[in-house]
Design brief:
This protein is of the alpha+beta class and 101 residues long. It is built from three helices and four strands. It is elongated, with a radius of gyration of 15 Å.
Length: 101
């Protein structure tokens, strides 16, 4: 068995967390060392961080991986469209306001 095979077979624990940002509960998956370089995995529409479930443990050996669910997706808050503007700017503000180290 080579070193590359050992690395590939290593599994890293994925943590499931929620943070409050701009009155919204934002769910995210996180794995890897706190001191490692960060990779932020942002899902497309209409998906969630679940799409990265197999990728996160593979990247966690070299990076701190963070994969949030946008508001209205996955396990994050689903605010009414009358009280929350689902714009790219607002989604970026949510991500920047609580998840980016």
């Amino acid at each position: 068995m080579t070193a590359a095979e050992t690395q590939r077979n290593t599994q890293y624990l994925v943590h499931y967390r929620t943070v409050r940002v701009n009155n919204q509960d934002i769910f995210y998956r996180e794995a890897g060392s706190q001191s490692a370089p960060v990779i932020l995995l942002l899902h497309g529409f209409p998906t969630s961080s679940n799409m990265f479930r197999n990728l996160i443990p593979r990247l966690a050996g070299s990076f701190r991986v963070i994969a949030p669910d946008y508001p209205g997706y996955g396990q994050s808050s689903m605010p009414d469209h009358k009280s929350f503007e689902y714009s790219f700017e607002n989604l970026a503000n949510i991500i920047d306001g609580g998840l980016v180290p």
